[in-house]
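Next comes the chain:
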Amino acid sequence: MQAEIFTPSTGEWTSAGDAPIVIADTNPDNSGSHEVGPEIVMPNGEVLAMGGNGHNVVYSQLTKTWRQTDDLPKEQGQQLDVADGPGAIEPNGTALIAASPGFGNSPTHFYEWDGTSFTRTEEPANAKFAPSYVFFMVVLPTGEILMTDGDSDIEIYTPAPGVSPNAVPVITRAPTPIDPTVRPFALDPVVTLIAGKSYTLEADRINGISQGAYYGDDQQAYTNFPLVRITNDATGKVRYCRTHDHEHRKIGPSSHGSTQFDIPGDIDLGPSSLETVANGIASTPLEVNLR
């Protein structure tokens, strides 16, 4: 199976090598659904490409090579696959995947992939009646995985604790006011911020190291953009600031960027903790004082 890489800056395609096995749900006579599953960027930079026929491959961005990994298991004699369906990266670095037996067939089972093997995990009760393609995931700021199957049943999956160390955002400088007439009020070691004003925040890994949630080809719920949240020390109340004018959406351990954010005018005042969050992973809190 041939693969190619598109470079937007040059408008050119280059070879990404040949995958060792066909992963699309396609038969020799060209029949089949032609579906594949999500292609998930893992914390080590490798890409897990889930197949629509039960076969799966991994692409190394470092060596530009492919390797075959474990097939999804069989359940009651039926081969599971992701002929369209979702996957997401948990903050701990494990991939969560929905799989079912063939395109459009139920039931759906959920598996976690740790970079080596698949392990079945908990699933919602209605998964037994639905194929994988009806499920959609998004990574919440809390690190939980929100999932829906298109009906009124909304599910939240809580991953095992832990965070990939190379994914943690790091605030690299104190927020600076966008309006030059606003005095910074930088008081070491606490930065004073003004309610109702806008600031610029810089951080390493500000967009995370993955896109968060993935899907075969019909829906994407990427969260590779920065959030800014402020927690009041006294009340414990959490407020999310509107972020905008992100410098870029690049991902990766060495990526650095900035975002602008607006502090709500009615935020609780006083000593607080400010964090930037990407794909459910928060930075070390920055102590600030809200005035």
Summary: The chain has a mean pLDDT of 94. The domain at 165-290 is CATH 2.60.40.10 (Immunoglobulin-like). Residues 6 and 49 are 17 Å apart (CA to CA). DSSP finds no helices and 26 strands in the chain.
